[in-house]
Design brief:
With 462 residues, the protein is of the alpha/beta class. It is built from 15 helices and 19 strands. It folds into 2 domains: 76 residues, Immunoglobulin-like; 337 residues, TIM Barrel (Alpha-Beta Barrel).
């Protein structure tokens, strides 16, 4: 990491279209007011989410035992790393009929109100929730509302709740999902039963919300009703596995930034350019409410098992892409084992333990997770600072941006190329004293920078 004095700096802000987006926001508010039947469902984000990150827990692969109790031993380490929200993949019993593999898919649920014996007992889960809360962390459960296992009792007791083909046979929602049967949400009794099951875990175990599987395949109106019902018990946090703007009106706090994830992958392969990041950010400003949380990530259980682990997909770019997810607008996700440089594609239907080891990225996650917690510029939604792009002398390779909020600033300078790049920041000025997060160097107003392939700098106020 080398830099010399000299530069003029030019600030190009994503907020130049502010008045245009304010107009869009106003139109959005009009739409909300028109939906008078659901006005009581409008909710502010739960307070503790404003500067949170999220960590996905794969219980089966996390420890040799693969249990809730064994995972609990990792809580102090995760707390020290700076993790806030734990998202547990489904913990319910897994169907045996049409099961895939030996242990089956987490997402083939045969009882919505029970714990998979593979992972432990209901009491074990309650103890885990208490330990999480005692550490001032939060915990949400993965919820599969779109389909059930083929041996769920509802198949026999309420076949009218399921999708059927032209001959009246119950079918899977997607051809390849042969281990599950799809629901039809035209049935109001199904909706009531599913909301009752969602309420059960909040009331009985005091969880803090849900990550909702394939949320876009379930009617938005159902999610609005479900969130409204849950809010009567406690202020929950809701994550949608979808990228549907209307989900943010009444139902969900956060949605997947799938498109940005794919762009980051394709920058590494040369199929996308840094201009695609700009275009996507501008499109999101147009389509999503300003207070919407978008979830940024380089991996999750689907990507790891089916597309390849982040080390394999991103190679030497894995750190710089992680820095983007941790400092750009949105909430960062870390998948189990990423902090240990997980370099294998975990089996989905079999036991396949994560190999825990120290690696360079552990420090990266620790420093930036704590920075996000402490520096308001990196907070989520409207709680944080807007991304303002910094134009450089080599925008084809360098992606630089600033975020400012309430007297705090973070400046990220990322070499998203496989070449060493010498460059300047064009006419960029700051009134703040900034220090590089990893080496402590003070930011100089007229620096000339040289970054190695995939290298990065993150400057922040103290």
């Amino acid at each position: 990491m080398k830099h010399k004095m000299k530069t003029k700096k030019l600030l190009f802000s994503l907020t130049i279209l502010l008045s245009f987006f304010l107009m869009i926001a106003c139109k959005s508010e009009v739409k909300k007011e028109e939906k008078s039947c659901c006005s009581e469902k409008v909710q502010k984000h739960v307070e503790w989410s404003k500067n949170s990150n999220i960590y996905e827990v794969n219980i089966r692969q996390y420890t040799p035992e693969g249990t809730l109790n064994a995972f609990a031993d990792h809580l102090p380490r995760l707390k020290k790393m700076g993790v806030d929200i734990l998202w547990l993949m489904p913990i319910q019993p897994i169907g045996e009929k049409n099961r895939k593999g030996t242990l089956g898919s987490y997402y083939a649920v045969k009882d919505y109100k029970a714990v998979n014996p593979e992972f432990g007992t209901l009491e074990d889960f309650k103890n885990l929730v208490k330990k999480v809360h005692d550490l001032d962390m939060h915990i949400i459960l993965d919820w599969v509302a779109n389909h059930s296992a083929w041996d769920h009792p509802w198949i026999e007791s309420n076949p009218e709740w399921y999708l059927k083909d032209s001959t009246g046979n119950i079918i899977s929602p997607v051809a390849d999902w042969s281990d599950v049967a799809g629901f039809t949400y035209e049935n109001q009794e199904l909706r009531k039963a599913m909301i009752d099951a969602l309420e059960y875990w909040v009331v009985e175990t005091n969880i803090d919300g849900y990550r909702c599987d394939v949320a876009g395949m379930v009617p938005t109106e159902f999610w609005e009703d479900a969130t409204s019902a849950l809010m009567k018990h406690k202020h929950v946090f809701m994550l949608a596995e979808a990228n549907v703007p209307e989900h943010h009106n009444y139902a969900f706090d956060m949605s997947y930034a799938w498109d940005m994830h794919f762009i980051l992958n394709e920058i590494v392969t040369g199929e996308k350019t840094l201009e695609d990041i700009d275009n996507k950010l501008l499109k999101d400003l147009e389509e999503y409410p300003s207070d919407a949380y978008r979830m940024n990530f380089t991996s999750n259980h689907d990507e790891n098992s089916w597309k390849g682990n982040a080390v394999k997909r991103l190679g030497p770019a894995k750190e710089v892409m992680a820095v983007f997810t941790l400092t750009a607008s949105g909430m960062p996700l870390i998948y189990s084992g990423q902090e240990a440089c997980l370099d294998k594609d975990l089996e989905f239907f079999e036991k396949d333990q994560i190999e825990w080891k120290e690696c360079d990225i552990t420090e990266l996650y620790t420093k930036l997770l704590h920075l996000k917690k402490e520096n308001k510029a990196l907070w989520n939604g409207d709680f944080g600072g807007k991304m303002e792009k910094i134009v450089t002398s080599d925008d084809a390779s360098i992606y630089a941006y600033s975020r400012i909020k309430d007297g705090q600033q973070v400046v990220s300078i990322l070499n998203m190329s496989d070449k060493e790049i010498e460059f300047e920041l064009n006419d960029f000025k700051t009134t703040y004293t900034l220090y590089e997060v990893f080496n402590g160097d003070q930011f100089e107003q007229n620096d000339k920078f040289t970054l190695d392939p995939w290298e990065f700098l993150v400057y922040a106020t103290k």
